[in-house]
Design goal:
- The complex is a heteropentamer, with 2 copies of chain A (about 220 residues), 2 copies of chain B (about 230 residues) and 1 copy of chain C (about 270 residues).
- With about 220 residues, chain A is of the alpha/beta class.
- Chain A has a domain of about 60 residues.
- Chain A is built from 7 helices and 10 strands.
- Chain B is built from 9 helices and no strands.
- In chain B, helix 2 runs antiparallel to helix 4, helix 6 packs antiparallel against helix 9 and helix 8 packs antiparallel against helix 9.
- Chain C is mainly α and about 270 residues long.
- In chain C, about 75% of the residues lie in helices and about 0% in strands.
- Chain C has 9 helices and no strands.
- In chain C, helix 2 packs antiparallel against helix 3, helix 2 packs parallel to helix 9 and helix 4 crosses helix 7.
- Chain C is globular, with a radius of gyration of 21 Å.
- The chains are: A alpha/beta (about 220), B mainly alpha (about 230), C mainly alpha (about 270).
- Chains in contact: A-B, A-E, B-C, B-D, C-D, C-E, D-E.
- Chains B and D meet through helix 2, helix 4 and helix 8 of B and helix 2, helix 4 and helix 8 of D.
- Bound molecules: protoporphyrin IX containing FE, adenosine-5'-triphosphate (2 copies) and magnesium ion (MG) (2 copies).
- Protoporphyrin IX containing FE (HEM) binds next to helix 4, helix 5 and helix 6 of chain C.
Chain lengths: ~220, ~230, ~270, ~230, ~220
């Protein structure tokens, strides 16, 4: 095993109260590959992604990213993993620019100011960089959350419904972005209900039903 | 992985962010000031027009006002973290949870301290007290007392912000734990107001300082357990 | 209360009417100002001249012309500022109530700006009046502050309206700010009569409103004179503050050039 | 369109919903009880062990405890309405805004009243007071006092919940406005504790009742202006 | 004019702070027709829909629904208009069933209990009817919000990104539902970024750019 797998999920289950959101899931994703995550509403996609991002941890089983156990190595792993989630992680009362600058400084991004400006331009929010996130439309929040994600190139990008709320131009940009990430060697996990679009962007597919993997793993 | 300088840098960023939000909304401190003024008035009103009594218990009322304000201030400071799961975002950046603790607790202490200093002259006028042992000493004591509120307050605010009915849970958790250090603050402040012929001030301040060491140490160690979800 | 059984020369008797005449003049000017928009260019200036002029003369009357008060001596002279200041504050806050009500009945930025102006000026006058009262209380009652009903209700009123002003600062959206603060203004106005009747409801150590018939006519005259002066100044203050507020409001709610005005005010 | 029976039916549904939520989370009342108990304890701590003083001011401390709890309870009652813009949803069903006012204000009053009744025996024991004028009378008075807090409280909580710094804004606006009616409650309660030889109770209760009529009337008329967005 | 138009928007503008979210918009929609609303992120779609739903009102201009002015006739209009919005309007601590029952009782739906049960079945939440909304996944919330909307057939349905977060089966159901509403004579305004899907469901299209209508109205 010269290079450890990007993701290694071993018999993972996650319980909320009496209900198992993810149940005895096992799969691996080799480095540099992209995985499509599909499943009906409530099938456990978000829960799985949050576990991969070390935002929460399995009730049972193990997750290893690049060979490192998530629970034990969270500090190191968080530096390399990025999550785009249903929740935007934004501070409502900070402006778009301040939101990004905070993350840039905490991540130690060099030339934070320039990097932030470039990203705001990239997601089309330059003219609104001083507005607080509270005043943003649904799609504008999503765009800001995407910019937040891109401040530092991650080794693994976890994207939970990245196309939602984006306008057609935004969707095309997002697709280009995913390709770019892949080409740069970043692992991608993409959860979406737009199956065709998703399939054209990924190499493998995992379909969840009630928290369990269904069908052959591609 | 995370050496001490890194924790301090992170704490500084967290503090900076909270101050930025405070500056943008400019709401918390303003509102807190009016709130504690109203509380001071309330005490005197509810307790009748006995000004001798007011003077005698001024220190107690004063700290009660600060304490009530602290409940609101701490709640607000974590409300901004629950919107959009911002605290999750902060953790995943990654930020050391202990840096979050230090930044937030210190920010809250400073906020409370400013509040107490601003309200002080009004309190002195309203309750007709004299500051016998020096204003600098009083300011130091107030800061120590505010630090003593904010460390356990931050821990409990984090717990409460995750639970249901968070607003009511916070004071419920906070008050009993704070009683001893609050008592020390009140006694010491009372001695500054009424003079300290028997030199008891020192021992009360010592007690307060030990509580501080204890609370900050505990908070530093325990806070990560609270905001980490495992 | 303070009976003076002296008799005055007819000249002095005539002088006693002067404040009433000045008061009538000031009220007339305010009336013209309110009902004739075209006159507003000069009415406020006239009021300012009268107010400042009378205020300059006021110390002479209050400090030397009128004889010292029977029980309190010279300290009693604070009366001539304390009382009118408090009266003016109450007038301004009552105006705030009217403007708040008017806004809720028919939305207009004029009533909103007037509400803002009157509350701020009212709090200002009230703060001065209460401070003077406190200064007066030290020699008469022996302490700057007591928890007497009148003083307490006065303090409450100031805090209530400070809260009102703070609320206005917290809300960015002009429509919401106007509506919400109008509602708060109406709730706050409940405290105005409470303050006024507090001396009757709670037997207070603060003086009840004395009746002109029981007070020396000279004192009444000087009090009326001072009140007139402050009334003129109050009108000028509120008007100037109102201009500032409406300019700001117009800026906030202006329709940009690309959007020529349609419909107008909300 | 909306006759009186319809408003009452709407108010009943709103009340029912709030009680359901309270029942499901079971958090608010529990926590409120502990909170006001802690506040009562705090008073006795902060003001030293002078039991004569405590007894004399028992009514004041008691109402202060209820008042502090009311801020938390009111805030919570509108927090559930801001999540997911639930209040917008309620308005658009459509529900008459006045029905929302009646339902919420009454629900809050009942909650506070329950709280005050539950805390009462503890307070009696802690401060060593006697109830001289009859428990039924006291219960009635408490309900009147709670109604007097909840009507303006509901209006102001609706404002604060939409503004920045909501947690701190509510008490800032609410406390000063409540002071007069709170004073009446305190005085009347004090007379019930200490006996009423001069028959003043009647006039205090009358004052409280007039405040209630005024505040409920104002709230009923003005509340729609606050939650409607125009 | 035998029958008034379902929607009549006359020179409507809406301001937030210094910014115009909708600017001098004028259009009409005849009764029984369906309108597709498109536009880039932040172009004012949500704001327009909220004004049509009487959730908020124009800063300038007039909106009439079925000949009635929104500001003046809000109580009557709200009974006939339904809004599916970004925000779900759900009480987080009430169960799915309790959320629906509340609305049913306030709307005076006859046989509320049966109606609620039928709708929960329709959106596939019968097994979760006792869970509080707080424990729902993104798509489950959306489903519950849809059920809430359907408790009483509206004369005008305003749908803000109704396909977002739904799984493929949910999207198909939503499409069928829109057709059903149209066939029943309900007016529909559909805001979505999935333009093709939207076009196949609607008769007319309004494209917004920075709050202004762009291009010919179909
Ligand atoms: C805001 C409400 C107030 C009003 C309407 C008010 C009004 C008056 C009036 C009308 C008098 C003259 C009574 C008379 O001789 O006829 C008076 C006297 C006085 N006021 Fe006030 N006042 C107010 C607040 C205060 C405050 C806040 C203080 C002190 C802190 C104060 C201190 C005094 C004193 C010391 C006197 C002289 C009392 C005496 O003759 O025994 N007043 N006030
Ligand atoms: N409460 C608010 N305060 C300030 N500005 C706002 C507010 N709500 C919306 N806006 C602004 O109004 C404009 C239109 O927003 P709106 O939500 O209507 O857009 P949208 O077309 O629905 O966008 P999206 O496709 O992203 O959902 C945006 O510029 C937004 O920033
Ligand atoms: N905090 C929670 N408490 C209780 N149950 C939860 C919680 N979060 C998720 N669940 C449950 O876990 C299951 C999986 O939820 P999850 O959000 O992972 O689904 P999903 O696949 O992302 O669905 P969607 O497509 O709707 O986003 C659901 O049944 C949900 O009700
Ligand atoms: Mg999901
Ligand atoms: Mg939108």
């Amino acid at each position: 095993m010269s290079q450890p797998a990007a993701i290694e999920v071993v018999d993972v289950s996650k319980r909320f109260g009496p209900r198992w959101a993810v149940a005895r899931l096992t799969f691996t994703l080799a480095t540099g590959r992209a995985l499509l995550l599909t499943g009906h509403n409530g099938s456990g996609k978000t829960t799985l992604l949050r576990m991969l991002a070390t935002a929460t941890f399995p009730t049972a089983g193990h997750i290893r990213l690049f060979g490192q156990e998530t629970r034990a190595e969270r500090a190191a792993l968080r530096d390399e993993v990025a999550l785009l989630s249903h929740a935007s992680f934004l501070y409502e009362d900070l402006s778009a620019e301040q939101n990004l600058t905070l993350v840039a400084r905490l991540r130690g991004v060099p030339q934070a100011k320039a990097a932030v400006a470039a990203l705001l331009d990239k997601v089309g929010l330059t003219t609104r960089s001083d507005s607080p996130a509270r005043h943003f439309s649904a799609g504008m929040r999503k765009r800001l959350a995407i910019a937040r994600l891109l401040l530092k190139r991650p080794k693994l990008a976890l994207l939970d419904e990245p196309f939602g709320e984006l306008d057609p131009a935004g969707i095309r940009q997002m697709e280009a972005l995913i390709r770019e990430l892949k080409d740069g060697g970043t692992g991608v996990v993409l959860a979406t209900h737009l199956v065709e679009q998703g399939q054209s962007l990924t190499d493998e597919r995992l379909h969840l039903e009630n928290g369990r993997a269904v069908g052959a793993q591609a | 992985m995370s050496g001490h300088p890194k924790i301090l840098a992170g704490a500084f960023e967290v503090l900076r962010k909270d101050l930025l939000i405070e500056w943008r909304t400019r709401a918390r401190l303003n509102a807190l000031i009016f709130f504690s003024l109203a509380t001071l008035l309330l005490f005197s009103f509810a307790l009748g027009p006995d000004s001798e009594l007011l003077r005698k218990n001024a220190a107690g009322y004063y700290w009660l006002g600060i304490l009530m304000a602290s409940v609101l201030s701490l709640g607000e400071s974590f409300r901004i973290e629950t919107e959009n799961l911002a605290l999750d975002g902060l953790r995943l950046i990654p930020t050391d949870p202990r840096a979050v603790f230090l930044g937030k607790a210190f920010g809250n202490a400073v906020m409370l301290w400013l509040l107490s200093l601003i309200v002080l002259p009004v309190m002195v006028a309203l309750y007709d007290v004299t500051i016998r042992e020096g204003v600098a000493q009083l300011a130091g004591l107030l800061f120590l007392g505010c630090l003593g509120i904010s460390a356990p307050g931050t821990v409990y605010a984090a717990i409460a912000s995750n639970a249901r009915a968070r607003d009511v849970l916070l004071p419920l958790l906070l008050f009993p734990v704070l009683l001893p250090s609050l008592l020390a603050s009140v006694k010491a402040t009372g001695l500054i107001f009424e003079g300290d012929p028997m030199l008891q001030l020192r021992s009360w301040v010592g007690l307060l300082a030990s509580f501080n060491v204890l609370y900050w140490g505990l908070g530093f160690v325990l806070f990560p357990k609270i905001i980490e979800d495992d | 209360m303070r009976h003076w059984t002296l008799t005055y020369s007819s000249q002095t008797q005539a002088l006693l009417w002067l404040p009433m005449i000045l008061l009538a003049l000031v009220l007339a000017l305010i009336g013209v100002h309110v009902f004739d928009p075209k006159a507003r260019r000069w009415t406020w200036k006239a009021l300012a001249v009268i107010g400042v002029g009378m205020a300059v003369g006021q110390p002479f009357l209050a400090l030397s012309w009128v004889p010292p008060e029977k029980y309190m001596g010279d300290t009693g002279r604070i009366l001539y500022v304390h009382v009118p200041q408090v009266w003016m504050a109450l007038i301004a806050l009552t105006l705030n109530f009217g403007a708040s009500l008017a806004f809720l009945l028919k939305k207009s930025w004029v009533s909103d700006a007037l509400a803002e102006a009157s509350a701020e000026v009212g709090v200002l006058f009230g703060a001065v009046g209460v401070t003077l009262g406190a200064l007066w209380a030290k020699p008469t009652w022996g302490a700057y502050w007591t928890w007497d009903a009148r003083l307490t209700t006065a303090a409450i009123l100031l805090v209530v309206y400070s809260g009102y002003l703070a609320l206005r600062k917290f809300i960015e959206d002009p429509e919401k700010r106007a509506t919400w603060s109008a509602v708060v203004g109406i709730f706050a106005a409940v405290d105005i009569p409470v303050l006024w009747f507090s001396v009757k409801w709670w037997r207070s150590m603060h003086q009840t409103q004395s009746n002109p018939s029981t007070v020396d006519p000279l004192m009444t005259a000087v009090l009326r004179y001072s009140a007139t002066a402050f009334l003129a100044l109050l009108a000028v203050f509120i008007y100037q503050r109102f201009l500032v507020a409406s300019a700001k409001r117009n800026e906030e709610v202006a329709l940009p050039e690309a959007l020529p005005a349609v419909g107008g005010t909300p």
